[in-house]
């Protein structure tokens, strides 16, 4: 049986795009979202221990940019099951040559892409269609005491959101803007 994923390295080290390969016939398609054996090199010894699902009702809504501090750092494998999102990862690894750089991919039900986001990155997205649904596989359980975030409209990050950002939660709009004292994270 052939591989169900093409693995594509992104410009930020460790960030990986997965092209899922659905099997199609006249009934529709079957697609694998996760396979420990096929993704062993990407996961690099990590286990996936939690799965979360979101529905975002309105186009233009921004969720994020979230991360967890060590020792509760987590990797995420994210997919869009319905609709379309502009999915963003920001490198928070202080010693990385791409510290505070961001990378985005359009994830949709139709393009069958997933993004693997390792520890040391913040993650968020903007919905490009109403009623967009995301599925997240996490390598660590959520730990409220370890949660962190970046303001998604921080001019220092200069994320080029494709639509006028809307729908920010109180939590996300309450994250402080970055300054020179931001320590980053050590995965």
Q: In this structure, how is the largest beta sheet organized? A: 6 strands, antiparallel
CATH class: Mainly Beta
The number of distinct β-strands equals 13
Could you say what the CATH architecture is?
A: Sandwich
Strand content: 35-45%
Quickly give the structural class.
mainly beta
- The first-to-last residue Cα distance is 35 Å
Question: What would CATH call the homologous superfamily?
Answer: Jelly Rolls
Number of helices, counting only DSSP H or I runs of 4 residues or more = 2
Order of helices and strands: EEEEHEEEEEEEEEH
Gyration radius, rounded: 16 Å
* Strand order in the sheet with the most strands: 1-2-10-7-12-5
Helix content: under 10%
Mean pLDDT: 95
Low-confidence stretches are none
Number of structurally distinct domains: 1
Keywords:
six-stranded antiparallel sheet; globular; mainly beta; Jelly Rolls; five-stranded antiparallel sheet; 187 residues
């Amino acid at each position: 049986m052939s591989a169900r994923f093409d693995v594509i390295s992104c410009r930020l080290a460790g960030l990986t795009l997965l092209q899922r390969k659905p099997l199609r016939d006249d009934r529709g398609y079957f697609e694998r979202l996760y396979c420990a054996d096929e993704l062993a090199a990407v996961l690099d010894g990590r286990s996936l221990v939690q799965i979360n699902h979101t529905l975002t009702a309105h186009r233009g809504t921004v969720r994020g940019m979230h991360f967890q501090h060590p020792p509760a750092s987590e990797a995420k494998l994210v997919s869009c099951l319905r609709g379309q999102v502009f999915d963003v990862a920001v490198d928070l690894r202080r010693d990385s040559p791409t510290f505070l750089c961001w990378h985005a991919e359009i994830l949709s039900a139709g393009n069958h892409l997933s993004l693997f986001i390792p520890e040391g990155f913040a993650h968020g997205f903007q919905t490009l269609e109403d009623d967009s649904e995301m599925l997240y596989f996490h390598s660590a359980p959520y730990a409220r005491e370890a949660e962190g975030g970046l303001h998604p409209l921080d001019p220092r990050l200069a994320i080029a959101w494709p639509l006028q950002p809307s729908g920010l939660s109180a939590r996300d709009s309450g994250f402080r803007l970055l300054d020179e004292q931001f320590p980053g994270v050590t995965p």
